[in-house]
Each structure stands twice: as C-alpha cells, then as structure tokens.
Amino acid sequence: MTARIQAPTPTAIRRMAAVLKRGGLVAVPSETVYGLAAHALDAKACQRIFKAKGRPPTDPLIVHVHSLAAAAAVADLTPEARALGRAFWPGPLTLVLKKKEIVPDVVTSGLDSVAVRIPRHRVFRDLLRVSGLPLAAPSANPFGYISPTTAEHVLHSLGDRIEHILDGGACDVGVESTIVDLRNPAKPCVLRPGKITADEIAAVLGVPVTVRRGRSHPGKTGKKRRSTAQRAPGQLERHYSPATRLRWVKAIASEEVLTSGRRVAYLFVVRPADPRLAALGGRVAWLSESGDATEAARMLFSRLRGLDQGGYREIRVERLPDDPAYAVIADRLNRAAARGR
Ligand code: AMP
Ligand code: MG
Fold it and tell me: Residue 164: which domain range?
C-alpha cells in the first residue's frame, strides 16, 4: 500500500468522509500536527490506528469533534469544560472528561474518561462536518517518533501503512495540543503542555491549575530526572524521538561546530550570527530567525526530522532561553532526548 497525498478539494473531502464511514484511516492536517483519523465510535477502525502506528493499546486516543453539541455526545460537558471550550475552541486544547457510554474502550484504553478537542484547521473541520463523525486521531507517525507537521512527513514515515493523506500545508502551531484533566473540576491539571498555558486556563477557570511535573522545564544537562510514579496513560518519558542521539549542551561556540567533524549536527534556538556556521549546510539548523518562540515551536519537529535524516552520530541541542514561552519546546525536546521508555 502506498499513500497518496491529496489536495483538500470538496470532492476529496467527500471521498475521505466516505472512507472514514467505511472504517478506513485518513491522515488529516490540524493546526497542531498531522493526525491519523478514524471513526471514533467504530472500535475496529480505531484498532487500525494502533496497528498502523505500532501504538500500545494502553495509550488512549483524542476524539476530535466539530461542535460543542458533538462534544456533548461523547463526554460529560461540565460547566468548567464549557467555559474552556468557549475560550479556546476551536483550537489546540484537549479536555479529559467523563466519557459517554457510546465511546468504545479501545479509544480510552478502558478508562471511564475521554479526551476531546475541537480543532481549528479548516481541512480538519471540513472533514468533521462533511462526515458528521467524531474522529479519533493521534499524531500520524510511527509510535514514539517525531510528530509530522507536513503531508510529506506523513508520507515519509507512514506511507507504506496507510492509503490516504489530506494535504493542508505546514501546521501552524507545530506542537501537540495542551491536555487538561478536568475529571476533578476543583483540581484541573495540565497533563501535556502546549501552546495554551496553565496560566491562561487558570484565568478562565478562576482556580489554580497544576502542571504534571517532569518535563516542562528547559533541559538541565546531566541531571537524572525522576520518573513519575502516577503517570497518566501514554505519558511516556521517551517520545517525539529521532533515531539519532540527542544531547543538550549549554551553549554552542562557533569553534566547536567548525572543529567537531562532519558527523555531529547542531540545533540552535536562533540563527547563529556567525556566517561560517550557516555555510556548513545541513548539519547546522535553528528553530527561529530571531528568537520568536511561536516560530520556534512551529519549526521544531521539522528541524528535528531534517537533522535525523542526515545520518549524524549525534545532534547537540542548544539550551533554551529560561522563558515560559519555551516551556512546550522544552517538554518535547526533553522527551526526545530521554533514553529509556
Ligand atoms: P497523542 O499521543 O498525541 O494522541 O496524545 C494523546 C494523549 O492524550 C495520550 O497519550 C494520553 O496521555 C492523553 N489522553 C487521551 N485520552 C485520555 C484519557 N481518557 N485520560 C487521560 N489521558 C488521556
Ligand atoms: Mg503522538
């Protein structure tokens, strides 16, 4: 099976909606990363997602819906959920809520909660509207590997396991949604950091929001981090990982790069000022032109992929600015650099 990348014409959207209704898989663009979608109420279809990704069944799927009414069909929408929905949907926020009976166990890994999101990307919204289905969709990549932010990324790493990829251009946010656990409305908790921050969520809810510890701070080199005992399903230490070894370094001096040999690659936060480095080509990359954290998040997975394909022995990553705007990038890079699973 070789996947075909399709422009999101009205005809293609109708055909992909039909594929989903029959229980098939379609890779779809979203504002966060590309997703691999299936009919969320069709257990067999959802099992195909796990098979295609090599994803363990203990890692539950996010259900994407078109509207609040459609969200209410799969989850108990508490007043807190509605308030966050009004503030941030459609957008990169996922809520973990008590599930409705109709959601199959395969989607929630047997939990009595379900993760729900209303995405913002036009192509994803068209597909949700035309199909009229809730769509379960994790990132469209082999489990544990770098998330895809273009249709070509999906083709490259899942192209022989799926048939259909809808092209919606490069993802605007570039990192996965913020996941907030609202099962206990008095104690909301961010399970996965994303573009929408705990502070923004707390401002809407009017109560403090905790952030599950472990990976939300810029990488401190050398220190062994505690593994979390009570981790939520799927919150694995190692994730978003290139095949090449990733190593944090405090700062990168030009001389080091120039003398390191061709098998070491470097990822800078900002384009290095030294023109000799840019001239080295593929083994030197940067997340942004001038330090904008939004741009850096958008470019992160694409840059990691590019470096991973260069056949380097090691990728050295420059320490991130100590700025909350970089917390989501720190989370992903810390997990990408983690050794064990
Ligand atoms: P992704 O791997 O990007 O699809 O992200 C899905 C993540 O959402 C999972 O790995 C879980 O951590 C989290 N998640 C999904 N459903 C639930 C749930 N019912 N309860 C708690 N966390 C969930
Ligand atoms: Mg993923």
Answer: 4-211
